[in-house]
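just leaving the lab so this will be short. what follows is a protein written twice so to speak, once as letters and once as structure tokens for the fold. can you read through it and tell me how you think this chain folds. anything you notice is useful, everything is just below:
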Amino acid sequence: MNRAQKEKIKRFVRIKKGIRKKISGTSSRPRLTVFRSNSEIYCQIINDEQGITLASASSKGANGVTAGTPVEKAIEVGKRVAEAAKSAGVESVVFDRNGYLYHGRVKALAEGARQGGLNF
């Protein structure tokens, strides 16, 4: 890894820590966190007080979304996590973009979750 790559990772981790310092999931408003890889997108609804995952969805695996553009996949994953959250009894969440910019696939996932009925 060259110096520029190391600096980019340091910056990302610093932004991520700043976000996590400000928000955390409670039992009344759990945290909806996003992980974005180059090809897939994953999300979880987490109660940080008890340290448990209440619901999750991803674009990978047997239940994953296989067709469409990456943004369309993210919208569908957002809708699926909203359905899973409603079955777990969750109505509103705190959105944790996990250091990523609120743009593109991350924004699409958030909009899909809102379309599915989550409030944040």
